[in-house]
C-alpha cells in the first residue's frame, strides 16, 4: 500500500487538471498514488485521464457531487496512511508531498497539515496557508495576501488545513469522520477542522509545501453561487461545531458579523448572501441533531478551544481585503 494517497476532484477543468497532474508526476517522493475523482465532467477530462494509463486512478461519477462529495469518494477508495487533498487548479512544487507529510510522521498528535497556496502569477503572495477561525465564527485563510517571505521557517500551529492543499492522517479521519457532503463546496474544510479540534487533534501549516493556485477557478470569486454557499455553510458549521459555553461567549460577535454582512448585502442588492443564511436556518432541527452527536464526542477543554480563536475582523478591514484580493486577481489574469 502507498504511504500517501493524493485526491484531486475535477469538474470540467481539463485545462487545469493537465497542469496539476504533471506537477504531481514530478514529485520528489516515490510512495504515493493519485486518484482523480471526476464529477460528471463534459469537457473530455475523464477520457484524457484514462489516456494517462496506470499512473492515475480515475473515478468517474455520473453527476456532480461537489467538492466535499467528490473528495469523500476518493477518501473511501484511498489506501495511503496520509491522505492529501489538492485542488485541480493548484500546481504543486516538486517537494510538496515530501514536505507536507513530514510533520505528521514526526508527531502523532498532528491530525492535519496545510500546504501553502500561492497566487498563480504572484508566487511572492500567499493565497492561503491554512485556516484561522475568529471569535465571530468567521473562518479565514491564514496569512492571506501576505508576502511569502513572512511564512515561518518551520511548521507552525493553525486552526486547520485548507482543503485545497491539505494532508490528513488516516486515524484522524477515522476518529472524526469525512467531509460533510451536504456542504457541497466551501467551508467543508473548516467544519472538519472544528470536529478535529473538538477531539484534540492538532494542525500545522507547512511552509515548505507550496503550490501555485489559480484562485476560485471553479467557483468564481464573488459569484452568487460562492457567496450563497459561504453564507449557508458558515451557519451550518457554527451550529454543528461550536460548543455551547464557547458559543454563548462568542454569540455577540457572531450575530454582529451576520447583521453587518446581511445589511451590506441588502445595500448591494446581493440577496443570495441572505438566502444562504435562510437555507441554513431552515435546516435547524437537523443541524441540532448533528450538533448533539458531534458535541457528545468532544474531549477538548473549552478554554483550550477559546485560545485558538482570533479576534473578530472589522467590516472595513474585510472590505479592504476584498478590494486587495480583486486587484491581485485582476493582475493575475492579465
What's the quick description here?
The chain is α/β, with parallel strands linked by helices and 334 residues long. The protein is 46% helix and 21% strand.
Protein architecture, described:
It is a single chain. The protein has helices at 14-25, 45-50, 66-77, 96-106, 170-176, 188-198, 224-241, 244-268, 271-282, 284-296, 302-308, 315-332, and strands at residues 4-10, 32-39, 57-61, 82-86, 90-92, 110-119, 122-128, 131-133, 139-141, 156-157, 165-169, 202-213. By secondary structure, the protein is an alpha/beta fold. It has 2 domains: 4-213, Spore Coat Polysaccharide Biosynthesis Protein SpsA, Chain A, CATH 3.90.550; 224-332, no CATH class. The strands form 2 sheets. Strands 1, 2, 3, 4, 5, 6, 7, 10, 11 and 12 form a 10-stranded mixed beta sheet that branches. A hairpin with a 5-residue loop joins strand 8 (131-133) and strand 9. Helix 7 (224-241) packs parallel to helix 9. The longest helix has 25 residues, at 244-268.
Number of domains: 2
Q: What is the CATH homology-level superfamily of the largest domain?
A: Spore Coat Polysaccharide Biosynthesis Protein SpsA, Chain A
CATH class value of the largest domain: Alpha Beta
Q: Strand share of the residues?
A: 15-25%
Measured as a percent range, the helix fraction is 40-55%
| CATH-defined architecture of the largest domain | Alpha-Beta Complex
The SSE order reads: EHEHEHEEHEEEEEEHHEHHHHHH
Helix and strand content put the structural class at alpha/beta
CATH fold-level topology of the largest domain: Spore Coat Polysaccharide Biosynthesis Protein SpsA, Chain A
- Please, what is the average pLDDT? 95
Low-confidence stretches: none
Radius of gyration: 19 Å
The tally of beta strands, per DSSP, is: 12
Q: Biggest β-sheet, characterized?
A: 10 strands, mixed
Number of helices: 12
Overall geometry comes to globular
Tell me the span between the first and last alpha carbons.
44 Å
